[in-house]
Amino acid sequence: DVKVTQSSRYLVKRTGEKVFLECVQDMDHENMFWYRQDPGLGLRLIYFSYDVKMKEKGDIPEGYSVSREKKERFSLILESASTNQTSMYLCASSPGTSGYEQYFGPGTRLTVT
Amino acid sequence: GQQLNQSPQSMFIQEGEDVSMNCTSSSIFNTWLWYKQDPGEGPVLLIALYKAGELTSNGRLTAQFGITRKDSFLNISASIPSDVGIYFCAGQRWEYGNKLVFGAGTILRVKS
Q1: How close, in Å, is residue B44 to chain A by CA atoms?
Q2: Which terminus of chain B has a lower count of CB atoms within 10 Å, N or C?
Q3: What are the tens digits of pLDDT across the range B58-87?
């Protein structure tokens, strides 16, 4: 079974803090993705990575950065957290050209106060 | 970004009923996927479809890749209480590479 794990299920941070969300997949997948999910807005892509050290902006990259130093790990960084970044953050991975289906982690519920 | 048109937005189920939902687009897709999300959890992949006309089952769930490649359907037979949750469709197109386009979701609730 594909397993995608996220470092925290719940996180509470203060405005202005630097926040790191970690994601690890164990299936040697090429691609990894970060989404945020908000009521009424659906799943929105923040960033994705198709290879180690490679990244592409998604639909809402502002205020976020990412890092992929190893194939299995993809980190989302909030440089200076703001209250409008309170959300559910979901990480996903997919095989790549051998398959486009994405497998999601359990999510991190981030609250910025 | 582009979204898929998923309907219905929500529905109530009574145990034992069959449930149908669908996803449509004005564009052609090469892969259709169906996910279920429980409250506070990440979406779980239910069924993946790769060919136009393909019909695939996973237990009581059956999904079809529309022949026009612009739509997909998910049916749940003999629903049970644990079927409640949000069901998402997602599609992949060559133009978008490895990215998926998602529907807004169908919320399944239990009829009291």
Answers
A1: 7
A2: C
A3: 999 999 999 999 999 999 999 999 999 999
Q: Does B100 touch chain A (CB under 8 A)?
A: yes
> Does an H or E element contain A56, and which?
strand A54-57
Please write the tens of the pLDDT for every residue from A60-85. Answer: 999 999 999 999 999 999 999 999 99
Question: What does the pLDDT read at residue B2?
Answer: 59
* Structure tokens, A55: 């990244």
Residue B51 confidence (pLDDT) above 80 = yes
Cis peptide before A95 (omega within 30 of 0): no
> For position A98, what pLDDT does the model report?
76
DSSP string, B53-103: T-EEEETTEEEEE-TTSSEEEEEE-S--GGG-EEEEEEEE-GGGTT--EEB
Question: Could you count the other beta carbons within 10 Å of the beta carbon of residue B77?
Answer: 14
- Check if B49 contacts A (Cβ < 8 Å): no
Which of B42, B98, B104 faces A50 most closely, judged by CB atoms?
Answer: B98
Interface touch B98/A58, C-beta < 8 Å = no
Query: Closest-CA residue in chain A for B42?
Result: A106
* B84, B12 Cβ separation under 8 angstroms: no
How many angstroms away from the CA of A27 is the closest CA of chain B? Answer: 15
Element containing residue B18 per DSSP (H, E)? none
Name which of A34-38, A108-112, B108-112 the model is least confident about.
B108-112
